[in-house]
Amino acid sequence: MFVKICGLRSVEHVEAAVAAGADAIGFLLSRSPRQVTPSEAAVLAATVPDHVLSVGVFATETTEQIRRDAEAAGVDTIQLHGAYKHEDFQALADLPVKLIRAIAGAEDPNTDCGAYGEDLLIVDAAKPGSGEPWDWTRLPAEPTGHWLLAGGLSPDNVACAVAEARPWGVDVSSGVEVSRGMKDPGLIRDFITAAKQAG
Ligand SMILES: O=C(O)c1ccccc1NCC(=O)[C@H](O)[C@H](O)COP(=O)(O)O
């Protein structure tokens, strides 16, 4: 079970996630309570070991802005949320990074990982990063390939969610926070342990 922890803002929390077995760590380079600047992300990404993906998350930025910020942050993966089209993925395809396409699972029938050239697909809630659970048992199409379930997951419900949706991996942000934007190392550890046991 591949586990991504998203929206980290401190070295302490990155180290806790890596030590607990996270496979990817996300940094918000877009408007969010978890937003970090590219230079802050660079400090955090430098602490992520090579076997763990360091992910820059974008939602409304142009591909030119994404290129600049991802390079400044030194991330090895770019995650695109929202209205990005196939052409946007193509415009980034020459970069030496992996690409993640994040979709609203209840609305988007384009659930084949790789359809836009991406390496990973995240099937998420309609409001990314909101922590609101949604009905992942009613997808318009069965996802294929390397896809991560996200949206309202937590240490308490991730095992059940994995049993119901059978994803290749999971992604969490709010469910490992004590308040909006404030991660908790204990919850990060609990989530990763529960997700790995479920997979
Ligand atoms: O986290 C945010 O604030 C955010 C804002 C804009 C676009 C994406 C955002 N988060 C992306 C993620 O990868 C989250 O981990 C994912 O949506 C799950 O969030 P949550 O329901 O809070 O676990």
Automatic annotation (TrEMBL):
EC number: 5.3.1.24
Keyword hit for ATP-binding: no
GO molecular function: phosphoribosylanthranilate isomerase activity
UniProt cross-references to SUPFAM superfamilies, sorted A to Z: Ribulose-phoshate binding barrel
Pathway: Amino-acid biosynthesis; L-tryptophan biosynthesis; L-tryptophan from chorismate: step 3/5
Catalytic activities: N-(5-phospho-beta-D-ribosyl)anthranilate = 1-(2-carboxyphenylamino)-1-deoxy-D-ribulose 5-phosphate
HAMAP family: PRAI
Official protein name in the record: N-(5'-phosphoribosyl)anthranilate isomerase
Organism for this UniProt entry: Stackebrandtia endophytica
